[in-house]
Write a structure and sequence with these properties.
The protein is mainly beta. The protein has strands at about 5, 10-15, 20-25, 35-40, 45-50, 55-60, 65-70, 75-80, 90-100, 100-105, 110-114. The strands form two sheets. Strands 2, 4, 5, 6, 9, 10 and 11 form a seven-stranded mixed beta sheet that branches. The mean pLDDT is about 95.
Length: about 110
């Protein structure tokens, strides 16, 4: 059974940094795409950043220049370095892995205090 385990969330002051990690276990396949999504209270889940097995990255406009995604395809692991955090970045952050199907993590809370 495939499991995605996220870590690295927490409480940080505005302007601070956090690094999220997501490791997938139990998969016989390497990822095609891994990424991070976030959902704030009362809002839909939105894309933050994705990375393909070839290293191509995409970012939401709201995080460009502040967040950096990286990944290790051989280990089915993805990271999200978040700098210059803003209160509007507060959300539950979810990891997603796509092989021949999609898998989601349980989410990790990121809270940015003003």
């Amino acid at each position: 059974q495939v499991q995605l385990v996220e870590s690295g969330g927490g409480l940080v002051q505005a302007g601070g940094s956090l690094r999220l990690s997501c490791a997938a276990s139990g998969s016989a396949f390497r990822f095609n795409v891994m990424g991070w999504y976030r959902q704030a209270p009362g809002k839909q889940r939105d894309l933050v950043a994705t990375i393909t097995s070839g290293g191509a990255q995409t970012y939401a406009d709201s995080v460009k220049g502040r967040f950096t995604i990286s990944g290790d395809n051989a280990k089915n692991t993805v990271y999200l370095q978040m700098n210059s955090l803003k209160p509007e970045d507060t959300a539950v952050y979810y990891c997603r892995m796509t092989t021949w199907r999609d898998y989601w993590g349980q989410g990790t809370q990121v809270t940015v205090a003003s």
